[in-house]
Design brief:
315 residues; alpha/beta; Rossmann fold; 2 domains; five-stranded parallel sheet; two-stranded antiparallel sheet; 11 helices; globular; binds adenosine-5'-triphosphate; binds magnesium ion; binds zinc ion
Length: 315
């Protein structure tokens, strides 16, 4: 599986046996054609496994064969599960390998996420992480790469939610007569939850209570949660450090500098922030980290061959 009869690795899935594609607004996984027919069980779904056990001391250990679900069944389950995680289609191709680090903090962010994913202790205590940084710096990319690995390679249950969509879903649920708990329940219980855009929203009482309940429930149960945010993780405003040598700055400048660093702590409140400190390692990407969406756009508009110029004649 994942390899051709010749022993060559499949060029389409790189030997992973599954592919992740964009489908509507979601990232969607499916079994690669190279593995559609399982070579181990020939499509039966079960395979024999040899076991050894001692039933009687006189006879000694005996070997016998049992029918167990084939690996292709486990894979099918993981793929089905992946399709309920809720990853956005823009993150379909996100991986640790195609994440580029432009600075030391991005390097730390990638290594931290990779270490977390590769060393996740099933059923154990796993400290999550929060990625904070400017737009387009790959925060959602790393959350997606992490969840992909956990779900498809480790076999965990995970969910991804964008915070404003979560609030909207709960509000809609309320209108349909559901309680907040009914909607938050599954998110409280899932093994790994990634909350994107933390701190976003209007900060209404409803939003704060929803978030508080979700975080408190996960915290109390010792569950692992990952976050991404555009807000700073600093506990205090760095008005002293961001200020130029005294005498060069007006008080107006100082006020502007303080205003442009918005703190997550102030956005989510002390109760939540305090729990986050215990639940997660913090990685903050500096303000000058390049926005990949803009970098791509700039590459696209650079002078080059006209659109379609690469095509052959008569098309
Ligand atoms: N460091 C990076 N290496 C490779 N690709 C990147 C990197 N940063 C961003 N990208 C790509 O750029 C696009 C935007 O990235 P992403 O959505 O992860 O940014 P973000 O940090 O979550 O931004 P926002 O704060 O706006 O949500 C994605 O297609 C992503 O794969
Ligand atoms: Mg994002
Ligand atoms: Zn393949
Ligand atoms: Zn099989």
């Amino acid at each position: 599986m994942g390899t051709k009869a010749s022993g060559e690795v499949c060029g389409e899935c790189g030997g992973r046996t599954y592919l992740i594609e964009r489908r509507g607004d979601r990232a969607h996984a499916r079994v690669c054609t190279c593995s559609a027919r399982c070579g181990l069980c020939e499509g039966r779904g079960y395979a024999y496994e040899t076991r050894e056990e001692t039933f009687s001391a006189k006879v000694g250990p005996k070997r016998y064969e049992v029918l167990v679900p084939c690996v292709c069944q486990h894979r099918a389950r993981r793929i089905d599960h992946f399709n309920t995680v809720g990853l956005p289609s823009v993150a379909a191709h996100a991986s640790f390998e195609n994440y580029r680090a432009f600075n030391e903090a991005q390097d730390r962010a990638r290594n931290g996420a990779m270490h977390f994913a590769h060393h996740y202790a099933k059923g154990g205590v796993n400290k999550g992480f929060i990625l904070s940084g400017p737009v387009g710096t790959g925060k959602t990319h790393l959350l997606a790469a992490t969840l992909k690995h956990l779900v498809l390679e480790v076999g965990l249950e995970a969910r991804y939610v964008e915070i404003s969509l979560l609030y909207a879903t709960i509000r809609r649920g309320f209108q349909e007569g559901k309680s907040g708990g009914e909607i938050i329940g599954p998110l409280s219980d899932v093994e790994v939850l990634a909350i994107d855009e933390m701190g976003k929203g209007r900060g209404s009482q409803f939003e704060m209570e929803t978030l508080d309940e979700l975080i408190a429930r996960r915290y109390n149960a010792g569950r692992t949660t990952l976050f991404a945010t555009n807000y700073s993780l600093e506990p205090e405003r760095k008005s002293v450090r961001t200020a130029a040598p005294s005498g060069y700055r007006t008080t107006e400048d100082a006020k502007t500098a303080a205003r442009d660093v918005e703190l997550l702590r102030e956005r989510v409140g002390e109760r939540i922030y305090s729990r986050l400190c215990e639940m997660c390692s913090f990685v903050e990407l500096p303000k000058e980290t390049p926005d990949q969406r803009r970098m791509r756009q700039e590459l696209d508009v650079r002078p080059g061959p006209p659109p379609g110029g690469m095509r052959g004649p008569g098309r």
